[in-house]
């Protein structure tokens, strides 16, 4: 069974108006994360839904409502927001960590496709033909004069 741990995350807020992406709720234990909105700074942090917010930039949220805590996040100027939260200990499995949506798109781009492989093979073939032409004709200038390299 996982134990409860406190942890600190830093979230970058680009502008005063940028939304951090945390919906909050208050229960008997304090202010908790109700939802992390996708494609926001909070969604790519280690924050998890259900975790309790302990402090924001060193200011305790212990006696604050969800609305008061949200106001602090909203009014924080651009820069790094440091949030101390409390929740279940992290899993050892790295697949449990959040990822940014763009990460999966980048990994898709890194996988060679049939089209890329075909272009690569054709390029290698063309390069071999050019090198053979250069070697046959006595160098680049001779191959160029012969019309092989245009």
List keywords for this structure.
33% helix; two-stranded antiparallel sheet; single chain; 150 residues; 2 domains; Pdz3 Domain; four-stranded antiparallel β-sheet; alpha+beta
Care to give the gist of this entry?
By secondary structure, the chain is of the alpha+beta class.
Low-confidence stretches: none
Tell the overall outline: elongated
Strand order of the largest sheet: 1-6-4-5
Our estimate of the beta-strand percent is 25-35%
What is the element string, with H for helices and E for strands? Answer: EEEEEHEHHH
The share of residues in helices is 25-40%
CATH topology description of the largest domain: Pdz3 Domain
When the domains are counted, the total is 2
Which CATH top level class of the largest domain fits? Mainly Beta
Secondary-structure-based class equals: alpha+beta
Count the beta strands. Answer: 6
Radius of gyration: 28 Å
Distance between the termini: 71 Å
Mean pLDDT: 77
**What's the story with the biggest beta sheet?**
4 strands, antiparallel
The name of the CATH architecture of the largest domain is Roll
Describe, in plain words, how this protein is organized in 3D.
The protein has 150 residues and is an alpha+beta fold. It has two domains: 4-94, PDZ domain (Pdz3 Domain); 112-145. Helices cover 33% and strands 27% of the residues. The strands form two sheets. It has a four-stranded antiparallel sheet, covered by helices on one side. The chain has a two-stranded antiparallel sheet with strand order 2-3. A hairpin with a 2-residue loop joins β4 and β5 (59-60). 15% of the residues are buried.
């Amino acid at each position: 069974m996982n134990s409860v741990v406190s942890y600190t995350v830093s979230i970058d807020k680009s502008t005063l108006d940028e939304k951090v992406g945390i919906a909050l709720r208050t229960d008997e234990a304090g202010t908790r994360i109700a939802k992390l909105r996708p494609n926001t700074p909070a969604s790519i942090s280690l924050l998890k839904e259900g975790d309790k917010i302990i402090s924001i930039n060193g200011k305790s949220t212990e006696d604050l409502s969800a609305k008061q805590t949200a106001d602090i996040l909203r009014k924080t100027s651009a820069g790094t927001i440091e949030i101390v939260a409390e929740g279940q200990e992290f899993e050892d499995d790295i697949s449990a960590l959040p990822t940014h949506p763009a990460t999966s798109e980048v990994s898709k781009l890194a996988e060679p496709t049939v089209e890329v492989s075909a272009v690569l093979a054709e390029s290698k073939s063309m390069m071999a033909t050019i090198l053979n032409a250069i070697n046959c004709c006595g160098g680049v200038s001779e191959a160029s004069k012969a019309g092989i390299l245009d």
